[in-house]
Amino acid sequence: MNMNTPSLTTESFRDAILRHLTYSFGKDPAHAMLEDWRMALSYAVRDRIVDSWFSATRRSYEAGAKRVYYLSMEFLIGRLLEDGIVNLELVDQAKGALAELGQDYQNVLADEPDAALGNGGLGRLAACFLESLSTLGCPAMGYGIRYEHGLFRQSFRDGRQCEAPETWLLQRHAWEFERPEARFRIGFGGDVKITGERALWTPDEMVEAEAFDTPVIGWKGRWANTLRLWSARAVDPFDLDSFNRGDFAAAAQPEALARTISRVLYPDDTTEQGKELRLKQEFFLTAAALRDILRRFDSEHDDIRALPSKVAIQLNDTHPAVAGPELVRILHDERGLSFDEAMTLAQGTLSYTNHTLLPEALESWPEGLFGKLLPRHLQIVDRIDAAHAARHPSRTQSMRADHEVKMGNLSFVMAHKVNGVSALHTGLMKTTVFEELHGLHPDRIVNQTNGVTPRRWLLACNPLLASLINDTIGEGWFDDLEQLKRLEPHVDDAAWLDRYAQIKRDNKADLAQWMAETQGVKADPAMMFDIQIKRIHEYKRQHMNILETIALWQAIKADPDAHWTPRLKLFAGKAAPGYFFAKDIIRLINDAAEVINADPVTAPFLKVAFLPNYNVTLAERLIPAADLSEQISTAGKEASGTGNMKFALNGAPTVGTLDGANVEIREHVGAENFFLFGMTAEEVMERRKIDGHAAHAIAADPRLAAALATLRDGTFSPEEPDRYAGIADNLEGADYFTVCSDFTDYWRAQREVDAAYRDPKGWARMAALNTARSGWFSSDRTIQGYMADIWGAESLLRNP
Ligand code: 26V
Is there a catalytic annotation at residue 355? Predict the structure, then answer.
């Protein structure tokens, strides 16, 4: 609790809610709607947050400390009300106050829109990082875009994914403060006049970036940082000449055009498409953030050469990579530093995180497009590239090849540190995409294995487990997650283990009830809850999971009296709207679920469901109820994964490959508490070279052959038998993601899971050890790593 803020009683909290209901929202309690109650509660919580926020801001200025700026096109923050209540330790007061007011706590929380300003892992990681930065008292700010529409809403029609716009701003929420005074003009296009050493860029299109600030509260409200999101608007919102001519549509055009920049989040995180609007978004975010950062720097310091010692700017993937040339442009063209000095200062300030090695997701911009929108920046990129080439004459990896700008190479050269997000991924960066640059700059690449915030992903989402942990080891784990280790001795205490297992059963019963009431899915909590939730992508291999499900269905049908372990296979996740193969996988899972769930012979043992509209809120509901975590990507393809950590922490052992952070999870929880299968990254690369590797695997495994046959004979699509021929062709042909080659071992691992699950005590012990040994995967640990190895930043809390 903030030292200046008296602690709250239920009564004073109730009064605060009533005061806001009356005076902030003008509602009489007798006529208040759910949203009014939610807003009044939010404002009561927000008052506390603002107190911490101001004191943190004051302390940052007073200390003159180095600040961290996290630039990201995505912040997948989800709901914030419960997060605020939990971090301020106001759960009991909030529940009590609402009860006195005749309102149900959960009901009020559930009314909040889920802010889905991100696609998946990269955006959720940014949100966890902000929370940890505040928990650790590191002076920091997140910069992003205030998209009017976040990630689309997903529904199914005849099993097929349908997309509808997400309109989170239609409902009110309490968390952002509009900052009309923080506005910058951002230019595009135009031309460049060179005069001697300098250049003058005169853009021919201008939009205004306006800031909206959201305070991000850390554990116990000891510190709060800011998430600043930029919204685009027209410099001259209204064209009066057109209006006077009677052309009202044309009069409103400038505003409509400018606003498109922050209108919608790009929903495709799988293939880079080189769209002009996307590049505009990237420059819009980056330029506005840099102007804001330099304005703040100038207000505190008078020598720009101090920039790297006072400012650390982290680029979340290459999306804000234009920060390199833009910072050089400002320092050189506008502030008169030499080009070399501008380069050196920029490099000392910037660092870059890589989140994917998939070639199709690596950003590169056609030089025509880049030069049209950012003519001066293209010249600067060329000069950066030439300078780097001159210093390293043997170099072949340019940031300017194939008439494109290669954003990965640009980011690498402009950063003093480049990091991967798991040990395996960082190693692969050194031997694949950045091999040559790593050779030239051997100290630049470092690893920072991802983490997740335990406040949201255990304390808030799994209150039953949190309270067992508190009873057992006290509350120190909230901001020192490694203390979970102290649970270890208790896993051999039968009574304690019973309580642990009972909590999982309770969470499963809750989920089952919710699914029955709201999703029309009836599930027996006695079944094993086997869950795969993440974006739909071939490399994540949801199709391997459904093939194994089909094979299991066939095996049960063939021998219904054998000793089967009942399973519920749950899926959730969105496919990029233009990724047709991924959409076919969704449809296949839905079609297969319909047939399998209708089979009375297998019904006691197998049930399949695909829950629509996966988002942060749904994840918070599913993860505490999971028995088994599916982390089955083709080795070498998943940079880290963070869902894998959330499952382990909440007591769901993993069935998984040696990919991303799975490797480190297995090391921490112990090989005997992890169901490993599949080829290693090296083996995958070797296997791909073997002609007909998929055919060999199919020939060797009749189960796989029989499951694949159902994709061709219309078992799941009798009205259109060749609906899944495309998937079958892919798997039987090139099978780039080695589904067939890994299938047999996946089946074996799953039967091992079945056997282990039949021993409830053994299973509970394994689950509990997963919880006890997952403490290292806290994003607090990750952020401490960035602070020490990359940013040189320090905490301003005495006892963080
Ligand atoms: C890529 C692209 C490509 C260009 C168009 C728009 C767009 C938007 C997002 C992305 C992000 C792809 C990278 C990503 O999300 N990587 C994930 O990062 C997680 C956090 O580090 C990590 O756990 C996942 O393994 C990794 O897939």
Answer: yes
DSSP H helical segments within 311-434, as ranges?
323-329, 339-349, 367-373, 375-391, 407-414, 423-431
Residue nearest to ligand 1 atom 15, measured at CA: 122
Check pLDDT > 70 for residue 5: no
Measuring CA to CA, which residue among 608, 611, 508 is closest to residue 567?
608
| 630-682 pLDDT per residue, tens | 999 999 999 999 999 999 999 999 999 999 999 999 999 999 999 999 999 99
- The rounded percent of the chain whose pLDDT value lies above 90 is 94
Q: Which residue CA neighbors atom 18 of ligand 1 most closely? A: 122
Active site residue 400: no
- Residue 76 and residue 116: Cα distance in Å, rounded? 5
Say yes or no: CB of residue 120 within 6 Å of ligand 1.
Answer: yes
Q: Note the pLDDT of residue 2.
A: 42
Tens of pLDDT, residues 52-81: 999 999 999 999 999 999 999 999 999 999
Q: Give the pLDDT band (50/70/90) at residue 271.
A: confident
Integer angstrom CA distances of residue 30 from 18, 282, 552, 641 = 11, 47, 56, 47
For residue 45, the Cα-to-chain-centroid distance in whole angstroms is: 25
Phi, then psi, of 227 in degrees rounded to 5 = -100, 115
Compute the distance between CA of residue 225 and CA of residue 142 in angstroms, rounded to an integer: 8
Give per-residue pLDDT as tens, 558-587: 999 999 999 999 999 999 999 999 999 999
Separation of CA 124 from chain center:
2
60 pocket-lining for ligand 1 (C-beta < 6 Å)? no
Q: Look up the pTM and report it.
A: 0.98
For strand 140-145 and strand 115-117, is the pairing parallel, antiparallel, or unpaired?
unpaired
Say which of 124, 508, 535, 543 is annotated catalytic. 535
Q: Is 269 in the pocket of ligand 1 (CB under 6 A)?
A: yes
* Assigned token pair, 465: 């487990």
Measured from the Cβ of residue 134, the count of other Cβ atoms closer than 10 Å reads 29
Phi/psi region, residue 541 (left: phi>0; alpha: psi -120 to 50; beta: rest), is left
Q: Is the CB of residue 121 below 6 angstroms from any atom belonging to ligand 1?
A: yes
Using N-to-C axis directions, what is the helix angle for 10-19 and 34-63, rounded to 10°? 110
Q: Is the pLDDT of residue 3 over 60?
A: no
H/E stretch holding 571? strand 567-572
| Encoded amino acid at 69, one letter | Y
H/E element holding 698? helix 693-700
